[in-house]
Amino acid sequence: MAALFKLSTVVSLYMALCACSPATAPQPGAPHADGTVNNGVISYAASDFHEPSPGRNGGTLRVSAASDAGSFDIHALSNGNIQWMGRILFDCLVYQDEQGNISPWLATSWDISEDGKTYTFHLRNDVTFSDGEKFNAAALQTNLEHMRDPATKSPLAAAYIAPYLDGKIVDEYTFEAHLREPYTPFLDVLAQSWLGMISPRQIREAPKTIAEHPVGSGPFLLQSYTRDQGAVFTKRPGYHWAPPVTRHVGEAYLDRIELSYVPEAMIRFTALESGQSDFALDAPAQNAAAIRANPHLVMRSRIRKGNPSRSMTFNVEQAPFDDVRVRRAVAKAIDRDGLAWISGFGEFISKADFLAANTRFYQPSNDALAYDVNAANALLDQAGWTGRDAQGYRTKDGERLKATLLTYDNPAFPASVSVAIQADLKKVGFDMPIEMLPLTRVTERRYAGKFQALAAGYWHTNTPDGLFVLYHSQSISTPKLIGQNAGKFRDAELDRVLSAARRSRDPVELQALYGEAQKRLTETVPAVPSVESQVLTAYSTQVKGVIFDTSHNVPFFPSIWLDRGQP
Known about the structure:
Blueprint: H1 7-20, E1 36-38, E2 41-43, E3 60-65, H2 82-89, E4 94-96, E5 102-104, E6 107-112, E7 118-123, H3 137-148, H4 157-160, E8 164-171, E9 174-179, H5 186-189, H6 200-205, E10 220-226, E11 230-235, E12 256-261, H7 265-274, E13 279-280, H8 288-293, E14 297-303, E15 312-314, H9 324-333, H10 336-344, H11 373-382, E16 387-388, E17 394-396, E18 399-400, E19 405-407, H12 415-426, E20 434-436, H13 439-448, E21 453-455, H14 466-471, H15 492-503, H16 507-524, E22 527-528, E23 534-540, E24 543-544, E25 561-562
Parallel strand pairs: 3-12, 3-13, 19-20, 19-21
Antiparallel strand pairs: 1-2, 4-5, 6-7, 7-9, 8-9, 10-11, 11-12, 13-23, 14-23, 15-21, 15-22, 16-17, 17-18, 24-25
Helix pairs in contact: 1-7, 9-11, 10-12, 15-16
C-alpha cells in the first residue's frame, strides 16, 4: 500500500492550501447535471458511452472514493461502490446500450420462449476467470445459484433474479434459465454490476474468500486491499471481451489503479486540485464550483437510473404512518429545494416523484407532492391531529404527533439533511427526533422493520422495475428473502399494475402501466423522495477516454488512459 497517496500527506497539503488559496464557494444557481432535458426527461449523448478512439497504454491512475464497501462479494452487497468496482473486477452476462436496449457481453445471443419463462443463453467460448476457470454454462449456473443462496445474504442480486426457478446446461456454452413467471426485466437486471460473474471454483471451494480476495473475469485484478484505506488493481493480461457496445477492444489501457478511501470531502478535493490524486469518484459537491473553475480539472454530474436518492421511507404498519393523510402531509411539509441545497450545494436536482429522470418510462409528476405547508397542515387537521401541547406540537387523544427518524451520517444522506427534515416538520407541529446509528445497525433494523421512518441513501436499478422491488407486497422480507420493501407497504392496485408490467413486452402498454404505477405512488406515499440520485466525479485533464457505464452512469475504467505529456 506504499504506492497509495497517504492520508497524512494529503492532510498536510490541505492545510497548506487552505492557508494560501481557499476554495471557491459554490454560488446559488440552477442545479448541474450532464445530459439534455426534454419535458422533464434527461437523456445523454451516445458518445458518452462509446470509446471515441484507441488510447495510450501504461500508467497508474490514482483514485479516491469516500468510503469502503467492506467487501468485494458483489452478490452479497448493496453498496453503491459496486457500481464502478464491479466493472473493474467482473463481467456481466449482458450489457445495456445507450438506449437501454440489451446487447451482448459474455452472452453472444439469447432466445426467449413465447411464454416468457425460458431464456436460452449462447455464451462466448473464450472467456476465463483469473484463476484459469472457464466461463461456461456451468459457471453461469453456479453464479445464479450463489446469488439466490440464503447463505449469500444477498440484498440485491437475489431480489433482482427472484423469478429465477432453475437452469439447465444444454451444452458447454448454452444455458437455459427457467423462470416461475414471465419477467420482462430479467435481461436488464443481468446487466448490473451486482450480478457479475465470480469464479465458480471460488464459489464452490472458498466462498468466504470472495469478500477480500475476489476472482473475476474482468479487465483488472485485485493486487492488494486494506480495509478502510485502499486497494490496488492491476491490468489483466490477455483480457479481450469488453462489451462490444463500448467499442473498447483488448486489454485495459492502464497498468494500475491505486484506490484510496478518503472520507473527508475537502481532502478529496485538495488532493485532486494539487495533483496528488487523478480521479475523485465521489467529487465533493461543496467544491464543484471550484472544480469547474479550474482549467486543469473536469467535473461530471450524472443521474443514476432507477429511483431517486435520499428518500425517507415510512413503516406503514406503525402509527402515525399507517394513515396516508399523515404520510402525504409529511411529504408536502418538506422543502426539497432546501434539502437539495443542503446536501448538494446547488448541484443536486430536487425530486418529488418516484423514478429517476433518465429511466425508461419515466413520467414527471413532481406537482402531486410539491412543497405546500398550508396543504400539509390541512391534511393533519383532517387526520384528527388538531390539538396542540405546550411545545406547540400537534396532539390527538392526548398523544403528541411524533415519530423517530432512523438514519446514519453518510455522503448519500448527510446528517444535515435529517436535521432540516426535522425543522420542516416542526413547523407543522410534527415532532421527529433523530436516531443516528452506524450503518450496520441501521441496516439490521431496516430489514427487521424496526423503525418508524428511515432516512437512507439511494436505491438504484437500471429499469423501472425498481418500483416493484421497493414497493410491491412480494418484496417484503421473508425468512428466505431479504426484501427491499422495508416499510412493509401493501397496495393491491399498485401490486396489480407492477405485476402486469413484469409480464408485458409491449412498450406502449409498459408506458401506460408504469405511468399508472408512478401516479399511484404519489397517491399512497410509501416514501418521500428528496433529490435525484446523482453521481459526481471529477478528474484531471490528463485523464482521457472517460466514458460511462450505461446501467449505472459511472466511469468505465477499461477505456481510461493517461496523457502525462510523455510517450
